[in-house]
Amino acid sequence: MYFVYKPEGSSEWQKWKFEPEKLLSPEAEAIERKTGLDFGEFVQKARFNMRCRRALLWVLLKREHPRLTFEDVQISMEQTDFRFTRAEYDEMRAKAHEQFDGAELDAFLEQLDAEADEKALDDEDEAPKAPASSGG
Fold first, then answer.
1. For residues 58-84, b (16+ Cβ closer than 10 Å) or e, as one string?
2. pLDDT digits over 36-72, tens only?
3. Contacts of 68 (CB under 8 A, 6+ apart)
4. What is the pTM of this model?
5. Phi–psi pair at 130, nearest 5 degrees
6. Is-contact 2 46, C-beta < 8 A?
7. Is 56 helix (H, G, I), strand (E, B) or coil?
């Protein structure tokens, strides 16, 4: 899974592989301080929580801009998203056959395939498609 960001006024996306276990302790602790969540909670909520997204983006941008403050990072939901690769969607599809059956499986796969068609990254070099206006 990738975390993607498109700065306002830019046509270029930035993306980072979302591997929270590889964040350095000062980065993880900064995320905990800024979100008020322990790191495990942050990992679970990052895809759907604006403050989590903002804290993650701040930590990632600080790597190249060390003086950047949390207050400097002001974003909208449509500027950030989490994206799965096509292979990750294929894995989810396979696991769905173990969790669902019948009409429930069909409905889940239909929804998953629609999301994959809209959002999937085909490989690590592809620029992400624009996030859906619903905020991801």
1. bbbbbeeeeeeebeebebeeebbbbbb
2. 999 999 999 999 999 999 999 999 999 999 999 999 9
3. 58, 61, 62
4. 0.77
5. -65, 135
6. no
7. helix
